[in-house]
Structure formats: structure tokens, C-alpha cells
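Page 42, continued from yesterday. The earlier attempt failed because a stray header line got pasted into the input along with the sequence. Redoing it now with the clean sequence only.
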Amino acid sequence: MEFGQKPNQSRRLVGLAGVVIFHALLIWALVSGLARKAIEVLPAPIETKIIEEIKPPDEPPPPPPPTLDVPPPPFVPPPEINIATPPPQHAITVQSTQPTPPPQPVPAVKAPPSVSLKIDGKRCRAPEYPSVSQRLNEAGSVVLQLLVGTDGRVKDAKIVTSSGYPRLDEAARKGLSLCKFDAPSEPAWGTIKYTFRPED
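This time it went through. C-alpha cells are written below.
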């Protein structure tokens, strides 16, 4: 192209006309193609029908329950009730003329006699003072009843008065039950008192 010369106007117009025609054809192709696709995309109309509800067939009634022969209840005879009627008021009571024998006397149980008991240091050892009671400064007197046999030995022992401490009571009962006392002519009970004193 040479400077100083005007471009050809006809060529320019032909080029512009070609571009406009190309765009017009392009737009027409797009519009016509999209419209066809839009028609194809639309779903076919849906037909609806009202369907009547199907009822299940009527079930036959259940068979009647079998009849069972129920045996009659067993016969239970009513209990016999004997009512004692008082004797008539005009009845005569017969009393025997024989005297009633006197009641037999009940033999009295003879209690063993009581004797006085003395502790003899040669034949009796003093009860042992529990070490726990010594530590706790427990002290007191115990009164016992001892059953002494004909050999002078203790057959039974009972606590009459407590010292207030079960340990001391049991120690006195065990210790004095080992003693030997003067033998009585028959077994006899004797009362004895023993006092526990803490050692200084």
C-alpha cells in the first residue's frame, strides 16, 4: 500500500457486507437449531387415568370353635356339722356318793444346803488378773455361788454380782472353780466374794 493514496471503498464495503451476511447466517442457524432442540426436549404430554381402588376379596368367617364335652363337677358331700345342744334345764344331775380321793402331794425338790466357803491359800490359787484389765485400770468385786461336791471340788459356778467388767467376772469364775474347799457331807452351794485391785 502506498502512502498518500485512498483505500478502495468498494473493497471495504464488500468485506463489511460479507461479515454482516456471515453473522446473519450464523444467528439464523443458531436460532433455528435451538428452537428445534427446545421442541425435542419438551416431554410428551402425560395421560392420567383414575384407577378404582381394588378391594381385597372378603375373607370367609372363621370356623366356629369346637364344642368340648365338659364333664360335670364332682359331687362333694357337705360336711356334717354336729351342734352340741345344752341339756334341758329340768334334767336331773346324778352325783356319786363316793368321796373324791385327795390329790397326791407333789414331792418337793430338795435344794442343796448352803455352806460358807473360805479361800485357803494352800489349796486355792488366786484368780489371774487379766493383763488387759490391768492396763485399763479395771477393778471391782465379783460375788459367785459355787456348788461344792463331797470331794471338796467345785461342780458348778454362777455369777451373783458382777464387777462391772465381763473380763474380771470370767477370770474370777474360772480361777475359783479350780479351788478345793472343805468337803461337805453332801453337795452344797456356797457364796464367795473376790476383789480385783490394780497393782501399785
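Notes: The chain has a mean pLDDT of 75.
Reminder to self: strip header lines before submitting.
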